[in-house]
User: Fold this.
Amino acid sequence: MAEYQVIFQPSGRRGVIAEGTTLLAAARSLGVSIEALCGGARACGKCRVIVAEGKFEKLGINSAMSHLSPVTAEESRLLTEDERERGYRLACCAEVRGDIVLTVPEESRQSKQVILETGRERLFAIDPVVKAFPLTLSEATLDDARDDARRLLDGLSSSYRLDGLSLNWEALRALPETLRNGGWNVTAIVSERQESREVIRVVASGSAAVLGIAIDCGTTTLAAYLCDLADGEVMAKASRMNPQISYGEDILARISYARSEKGGREKLFHAIIDAVNDLAAELTSKAGFSMSDVYEMVLVGNTAIHHFIFDLDTSYLGRSPFAPAVRGALNVRARDLGIKIWPAANIHSLPIEAGFVGADNAAVILAESPYDSDELRLIIDIGTNGEIVLGSRGKLFSTSCATGPALEGAQIAFGMRAAPGAIEKIRIDDATKEPRYKVIGMEKWFPDIEETSARGICGSGILDAVAQMYRAGIVNAAGRINAKCDSKRIRKGESGKLEYVIAWASETAIHRDIVITQADIRAVQLAKAALYVGAEYLLEKYGAERPDRVILAGAFGSYIDKESALTLGMFPRVELSRVCAVGNAAGDGARMALLSREKRMEIQREAGKVAVVETAVEPDFQKKFMNAIAFPPI
Amino acid sequence: MAEYQVIFQPSGRRGVIAEGTTLLAAARSLGVSIEALCGGARACGKCRVIVAEGKFEKLGINSAMSHLSPVTAEESRLLTEDERERGYRLACCAEVRGDIVLTVPEESRQSKQVILETGRERLFAIDPVVKAFPLTLSEATLDDARDDARRLLDGLSSSYRLDGLSLNWEALRALPETLRNGGWNVTAIVSERQESREVIRVVASGSAAVLGIAIDCGTTTLAAYLCDLADGEVMAKASRMNPQISYGEDILARISYARSEKGGREKLFHAIIDAVNDLAAELTSKAGFSMSDVYEMVLVGNTAIHHFIFDLDTSYLGRSPFAPAVRGALNVRARDLGIKIWPAANIHSLPIEAGFVGADNAAVILAESPYDSDELRLIIDIGTNGEIVLGSRGKLFSTSCATGPALEGAQIAFGMRAAPGAIEKIRIDDATKEPRYKVIGMEKWFPDIEETSARGICGSGILDAVAQMYRAGIVNAAGRINAKCDSKRIRKGESGKLEYVIAWASETAIHRDIVITQADIRAVQLAKAALYVGAEYLLEKYGAERPDRVILAGAFGSYIDKESALTLGMFPRVELSRVCAVGNAAGDGARMALLSREKRMEIQREAGKVAVVETAVEPDFQKKFMNAIAFPPI
Assistant:
C-alpha cells in the first residue's frame, strides 16, 4: 500500500501515513490533538482542518486538495460552501491519497483555556475521565437478539472505536427500559481510567449533562466547584465550614478524637461526607441539575482529612514514623462512600506526598507546576496547616507546618473570617501610634469616616496589625508590647497582659473596643515562625540561599499585605515584586485533575518525586524555631 | 550464561533452562503445574519433586542430584531425612546447574479430584479467583516510611511475584491497625480476575479461612455449597425454597409481577437476596466460620432468576425477541447487591446463553462438558423450566421448555416434594390393575405392609403412575382414562372427571384416598411433550436421528424411573443403558466455576458458542407438540 507525507500545522508534526487513512487517524497517530466530540462518527463537524495547497519547499512537499479523498456528503452538510472553498475539510472524513499539509485551526484544537480562581489562565486539553457518547442502535429482532449489553458495547465500538469497555452494574439495571423508551437512541456515559474502562450509565439521548465536582477540603473550609466536563466551564461554586471542627479545631485534635472516642472515626467520616453531599446538592441545585448528573468527583485535602474522607485509619498519622495508610491516588465509588451523586461515579483523590503533606499540596503543585519551571519557586499554602513546596524542574521538596488557625482569624481575641465587618488592612503612624484601618464592605478608611461596621479582625488585618505595631515600636523584636510606649491605646487587658486598641467601641458595630492582645501577637509569631523554619529547611535541602519567587496560595495568601509578611519574616527575604498570590491553588489543581486525564497522570508521576522533609525530627528544629520567632527572624 | 536440559515426568515436558533458575520457575515456564501454596516463598513445603538419577538414553540426558544447587536449610526443615535420601527436593529451592530429569509426584500436582454431587469425580486444577498469601513485612521506620499500602504491595511483589495489584478500599480501611496489631505478619486475601486484580482484605496471619459459596438458584429451590477455596472441599450444604414463589409459581408470573406491580421488581430482588443471605449465614454457621470469611460467590439460575438476583429489568425477557439485558458473565460486588459476605467479595454469575436458556444451563454444560465429548449427548435439566442441550465437540444446541411444575410434584392433586411421606415408585399389575407403591422413608412396598405414611405423590411417583397406568391399559395413548376398564379404583372424581386411586384412605397418613386425576395426567403430558419437542428440534438442527447418550440432570432426574420416562416418551427413544442421571449438575458447574479460573474461562468461551433454539417461534411447533402429547409420541 502506498504511503504519503502528512504534515500538521502549526505544530509541524509530520509522519508517513498509509493511503486511505483518515486525517483524524493520522493526527492521532502523530500526537496532534484534534477536537472530535463525536469520536469520529462524522456527526459533530468539530474536527475541521484546512488544506494548504501549493509547493512547500522548506518542508519538501507538494500539497493539494486532490491529495485527499473527495468531499463526502457529511462534509457538504457540516461545512458551509464558503468554508469548503477556503479549503476546510473534516478530519474524520477526508482520507490521505497523497502528500499533504494541513492547518489545524484554533477552534479545532483540543486544548482549552481554563480560567483559574485568580483569573489566571492555564492551557490544557479538556480530556476528562468521563465523557458522553450519543448512539443510535438497531432494534432487537429475532434475527438479531443480541443481549442489550452487547448491543450497546458493539455500538460504542463501531461508532467510536471504544473497545474492551465493561458495563457497570448500575448502567445495566435500567438498560433494557432506557433503550426501548428512547427508541434505541441513547447516550452512554463512559468512564475511562487506567484501572477501569466502563460504561457507568445509559440515558435517553438529548438529556445528557455530564458534570463533575472538585472540592478542596480544608481543615476549616470546604470549597467546591461544579464543572461541565464537556467544556470545563465552572457552573457553580459553593463553600462551607468543615463540620469536623466540632470534633477538634486542628488536625491533631481530630486524630486524637478518632482514636480515643468510641465511634470517633465514623463520626468524622460521616461529618465530612454529609458536608460533601450538602455541597453537591447546593451546587447542582444552583445550576439547575440533578445530583445524579455528577459522574466524577475530585477531592483534595491534607493527609488526615484525606484519611477521614475515605474512612481510613488515622491512628498512626500523628506518630513517628508518620506512615499514611496509602499515598497513591485513590479511586472509590460514590456509592461505597455514601456520596449521593451517580452511584457508580468515581471519587478520586490526588496522591498524598507523605505524612502531613497531603493531596491538597499535590493539587497546589499541579496548579503551579514548579516541576516545569526553571526558576526556584517557594510555594506557601497557608491554611490551618501550612504546606510549603520549594523547587524547580527536576527537584522538589515539601514540608508541612503546624501554623495553627491564627492566620485564618481563629483563636484571636477579635479574630473573624474575612467577611464584611472584618478589619482587613491597618496602618499605624510611627509618631502618634494612631491607626488607620479599612473594613471589608466599606470603601473608605477610618478615620476618614466617623463610624465603621467593624466587628473584628481577619487574618490579613492581624498580620498588618502586628507588622505595623512592630514598625511603630509598639512591639519589640521579641514580640513583646512595649509598656513604656506613649499611647492611650496601649493598656492592660482583662487578662492582666498588655493590649493595643485598634478601634474604640464608638467606632465599631459591636460597641466594644477591638484590640490586639499579647496572646494574639504570640499566635502570629508561632504561625510565621513555623512557615519560616519550614522554608529554611527546604532551602537547606535544596542547597539554595533564597527562592527566585515566592508564591502565596490559599485564600489568605491572596489578601495579605506582602510587605507586612516580609516585615514579620513569614518567609525568607526576597524583593517585594517577587512575591505573588495565586488564590485557591489547591482548588485549581483539583479542577485540573477533574478535567484532564493527562494532568491527573502528571501529578501522580510528579507527586512521587517530591522529597518530603519532616522538620519536627530535625535535631536543630527547636533552635531554628526560637530564632524565627523574632521580628525579623534571626 | 549456561543453559541445561530440564525434563519433568510424568508429563514429559522438557525445555532449555538457564543456570540458576529454580525448578519451580522452570516448571512454570514449561507449563508444568506444581503445587506451591506459599507462592514460592520457601514456606509451605508443598512443591516436592523427585530427582531421577542416571543416564536416560531415550531422553538423551544424564541426570544427577549434583546437577542441582545444594540442599537448603528450608529443605532440611521441610523434608524428612528419608525423603531427602529418596531424592526429594523442593522446587522453590533447588536451582538448575546441569541437565536433570524430575518426577512431579501426585501430591505435588496442582490438579485435584473434586467430588461431584452424584459421587462422580472431576479432575481439574483448584485455582480459585481468591487466594490467601501470608506475608512478613518490615516495620515502618523514619528511614522507610513507605505508606502501608505500598509496603503491602511491595511485599506481595517480592514474596509472590504478584505485581500490578490494586488495593481495594475495603482492605485499606483496616490496614494500618492490622499491620501493627499483627506485628507486621499478615495474610493478604487476593482476588485475581481478568478485569481486576486486587487485594480485597488483609487479616492477621494464622486466621485466614478463604471460603466461597456456590448457589444453584432454581425457580423453586435454592441449593447452596460452602467450599474451602484452598482445597475445594465442600464444608457445608444447605437448601431452601426460593421465596419468590409467593410472587408467582412460575417464571412468567414473576416477570409479570415485576412489571405490573409497583415495586414488584424490588420485592423479587430483595426476596432472593434475603434467601441468599440466609443460606450464607446457615452454611458458615454450620461450618463454624463467619460470613465475612466468604470472599467469592457463584450464582447460577435461569435467565429470569439471574435478572432478578442482579436487579435487572426483566420486562422484555418474556416477549419476542426475548433479548436479555446481558448475556456475558457478570461480576458485581457483594456490598452493592446487599449480600452480607465480605463486602468487597465478588458475586459471579456464569454467562447466560440467550432468552430463557440461562446461567444454570451454562453450569450444567460446564459440569458435563459435552463440548469435550465425541459422543452426541442430550442433557435434560428438569426443573420448573426444562433446559435441554444437545451436542458434541464443536457443535452445541440448547433450548428451554416450559414444562411447568408437574414433574416437581406441584399443581398435581396429591403432588408434593420428594420428602418423607411421598409415594415415589409405583407398579400396577396389568391384569388386576392393583398398584404396589413405595413411600419415601419406608423400606417396604405397600401392600407388603398394612399401613403407610403416605401423604402424597412426588414427581417420580407421578411419572411412574402415569407410565404404569398406560402400560396396564388404564390410560390410552391419548392420555385419557378408560372408563370401561374394570377396576374399583377407577371412578368419577369431585370434578366429574375420572381418576385412579393409588392408595385408599385407610393405608395413608392423611386418611384420604390418594388419586391420580385426569388433570394430573394432562399436566404430565404437557411437561413431557415440551421436553420431547425441544429435543426433537435440537436433533433436527444438529442433523441427527437420536443421541448417543441421554443425561438427566437436576434432583428430579436422579430419582425418576428411566423406563417410565422412556415409556411415556419424555425424550427420544434410546437404549435404557444409555440413559444416566447426574444429579444437580448446575450446582456442580457452579462449584467448578467457584474453584477454577480456567473452568470459569472455559464456560465463558463455550457458552458463547451454544446455538440457542427458540422452539416457540418455529412454524410447526403446535403440530409437533400435539404429536408429542401421545404415549408414546407419534
Observations:
- Residues 211-349 of chain A form a domain with the Nucleotidyltransferase; domain 5 fold (CATH 3.30.420.480).
- The two ends of chain A are 75 Å apart (CA to CA).
- Chain A has five domains: 3-108, 130-204, 211-349, 370-404+524-629, 427-518.
- The CA atoms of residues 469 and 484 of chain A lie 14 Å apart.
